[in-house]
Amino acid sequence: MIMYNTTIGVAAGAALVLVPRYWAAVKEQRLPLQMVRGSDAAGWAAAFGMLGALLTLLGGAMTVTHPLAEAKPYIDTVFGEPSLILGVALLAAAWRLSRSDAPLLDDIALRRSLAPTAWIIVLLGVVLSWCTAAILRFNVISSAPIEEPITGLLHDWPVLENTFFALLYGAAALGCLIFPVAIRAGSRLAWPLLYWTWTLAGIGFALFSAMNFYTHTGMIINMGSDGPDFRW
């Protein structure tokens, strides 16, 4: 069941974490869990370009290969297509930053650059909102197979993993929807809200998807064994 959701999830999570930290660096702010401070435009362009290339390539493969995973054909829609949009947006950001002569775009220049893109981000938020609704209404994520280590222990409680992903999608969607307000000068509520919604959603996506490198490998091994004596 190939879905690329391991690498895509890590890349998307890293993007959600890094984008508000770039903005904080431009604003010369020190925020909790910021970790990444300073750097120059070329460094940020390289980071966004790497993540954008991964998301565009793998998200694009999911989008045009339907169904990529016959067991869950709808994953192409709720996971692959938003990842493709995010990937292209990151490539555009990388291109813009690579053309900057300044170490970092100043606050005003960055707002002007983001003004047209902000509405694309809002539409991505609308997409993610409907994905969240679909996850809740149709139990899209469901539960992991019993053969899968760690997450398979929750096989009989699909509501847990499904709700977890609905919260991640919902947080990412909220950040996208308030993006035009958050980038305004003097934004005291929307900007911190965007920072935390994308930070928490990004950490959740990245850590869960990184864990899947272990759990998916174990699932494949366990499916090839006889009986219930699975390796965990």
Structural write-up:
This protein is mainly alpha-helical and 232 residues long. Helix content is 69%, strand content 0%. Helix 3 (75-98) runs antiparallel to helix 4 (107-138) and helix 4 runs antiparallel to helix 5.
How is the secondary structure organized here?
Elements: H1 5-26, H2 41-64, H3 75-98, H4 107-138, H5 158-177, H6 179-182, H7 190-223
Helix pairs in contact: 1-2, 1-3, 1-7, 2-3, 3-4, 4-5, 5-7
Q: Tally of extended strands?
A: 0
Report the span from N to C terminus: 20 Å
Structural Rg? 19 Å
Note the total helix count: 7
Mean pLDDT: 91
Give a brief rundown of this model.
Helices cover 69% and strands 0% of the residues. With 232 residues, the protein is mainly alpha-helical.
Offer a few descriptive terms.
232 residues, mainly alpha, 7 helices, 69% helix, 0% strand, elongated
